[in-house]
Amino acid sequence: MRPENRALDQLRPISIETGVSRYAEGSCLIRFGHTHVLVTASVDENVPRWMKGKGKGWVTAEYGMLPRSTHTRNDREAARGKQGGRTVEIQRLIGRSLRAVIDLEALGERQIVIDCDVMQADGGTRTASITGAWVALSQACAGLVEQGLIAKNPVTAPMAAVSCGIVDGTCRLDLEYVEDAAAQADANFVLTQTGGIIEVQATAEDEPFTSEQMDELTRLARNGIAELCEMQEAALA
Question: Residue 10: helix, strand or coil by DSSP?
């Protein structure tokens, strides 16, 4: 049995609360079960120096875990003087994922910075961050259209992310921490609502897994992401 008696193809309870930041151009608090992430989108009317004069914008992301987001307190990375490799890898993943579904020319010469702060972690923090980041980005872009700063919303497709894995020989959707820690294989899928692949990270933790198992993980992810995209659209309505 899975925790909370979930079916193998069932997401954790998901909620997306928008407008949680008074000042950010886009924001949401997204909950994947006990994983909670605060996401904000900030519009900067400048682009990185290396992009100036190219007639298009940029989307980038920062990610971090709050000191008591896990069972024991971790020092802030700022206090340690540098970001860890995991943090850098995840925030690059978030940025890449968002840039795959935005028309940077339509955005104009401005930058949108996404901040993902993990308030509580129970597995799947990167996938929750990406899913919430799309919501915050969409809000910020809609605001630019409303203000007449751009002609059309540059977001080109709904997109979300979810984890899958093989635990006790069974393929499962949306792993929480106890499952992830015991997984023989785990994967993170970033897909569009229609199943287009943006990025897939899949790793065997114990022994190689089969192409048939990979196909099943992909099927679970596609169905889960279709559900998540519906939740995103409902949150923005």
Answer: coil
Phi, psi of 119 (to 5 degrees): -85, -35
Nearest to 179 by CA among 191, 165, 190: 165
* 126 appears as a binding residue in the annotation: yes
Q: Is 43 helix (H, G, I), strand (E, B) or coil?
A: strand
Separation between Cα atoms, residue 192 and residue 158, nearest integer Å: 6
86 marked among binding-site residues: yes
- 200, 215 Cβ separation under 8 angstroms: no
Question: Rounded to whole angstroms, how far apart are CA atoms 114 and 137?
Answer: 7
Which residues partner with 154 through β-bridges?
none
Residue carrying structure tokens 């020989």 = 169
Binned average pLDDT, 10 residues per bin, the chain of 237 residues: 90 97 97 98 93 93 92 85 88 97 96 97 97 98 96 96 97 96 96 97 93 98 98 97
State pTM to two decimals.
Answer: 0.95
How far from the centroid of its chain's Cα atoms is residue 112's Cα?
15
Contact partners, residue 41, CB within 8 Å, separation at least 6 = 24, 25, 26, 27, 112, 113, 114, 115, 133, 136, 137, 139, 140
- Could you tell me which of 233, 229, 114 has the C-alpha nearest to residue 162? 229
Known binding residue 125? Answer is yes
Cβ-contact 229, 158 below 8 angstroms = yes
